[in-house]
Amino acid sequence: MYKIIDGKAISEQVKTEIAAEVKAMVAAGKRAPHLAVIIVGHDGGSETYVAHKVKSCEQVGFKSSKLAFEADITEDALLHEIDKLNKDPELDGFIVQLPIPKHISEQKVIEAIDFRKDVDGFHPVNVGRMSIGLPCYVSATPSGILELLKRYNIPTAGKNCVVIGRSNIVGKPVASLMMQKGYPGDATVTVCHSRSHNLKEICLAADIIIAALGKPEFLTADMVKEGATIIDVGTTRVPTSDTKSGYRLCGDVKFDEVAPKCAYITPVPGGVGPMTIVSLLKNTLLAAKGEIY
Ligand code: GUN
What we know:
By secondary structure, the chain is of the alpha/beta class. It has two domains: 87 residues, 3-Layer(aba) Sandwich (Rossmann fold); 134 residues, NAD(P)-binding Rossmann-like Domain (Rossmann fold, 3-Layer(aba) Sandwich), CATH 3.40.50.720. 39% of the residues lie in helices and 17% in strands. It is built from ten helices and eleven strands. The protein has a six-stranded parallel β-sheet. β9 and β10 form a beta hairpin. α1 packs parallel to α10, α2 crosses α10 and α6 crosses α7. Bound molecules: guanine.
């Protein structure tokens, strides 16, 4: 019988741990960690994610600031706001929620953030340091995935780990982390993407599959070995009349047919998703403690 990796429960557990640390910090006379979130425009998904991030800050005793700008803000004006946050001594870390409007360069924005406050771990300094195993802010989704593997004691050393998807936010960093020395890591990693040949054969040899390509129900039972561990990073919004919001979240894994073959599997929702916010909180706590830089 397969085991569900309960990201919701683990995320609550980690939040409780963070809250206890914050309480101790404040009791010792320090100020609470402070995270700021910049949001540009009115993307529905982004507004929901940002609301969750702000609420999670409250839950663990962080101070949070939300800076909302209209979609027509100029690139210069946004870069100026980022500069102000870089220089704010009362702020430990901040993020710019992506995507941003097309007339603003995402890369310019990411590189404008002081890497010492880049709790998203998107700045090239943090990405580079992560890839060579130096202390840094690791981006939220990869870090959440590793935390789940760790909390469920899932063995990774010498295992075949197949990552499907090569995005800068998930595929590339999680592949890099899974091959690093130590636990969770030491895996033999293969990265597959839209141009890969023999995807099915490669997946069938996998002990761990991390599906992060953003195609609903892409991974089917015929691609999965008995006893594999499946991590589903997909969060596609599929229209439905069954929910109040008018959509449901759909993972990259055809859960009902894949689950019976697995040792462990993450559900969507309630798997990787809740862990990403917790990873952001952890990075902000590290920033407040000055433990990375
Ligand atoms: N958009 C989707 N995921 C993320 C994330 O982890 N950070 C930011 N800043 N934007 C996102």
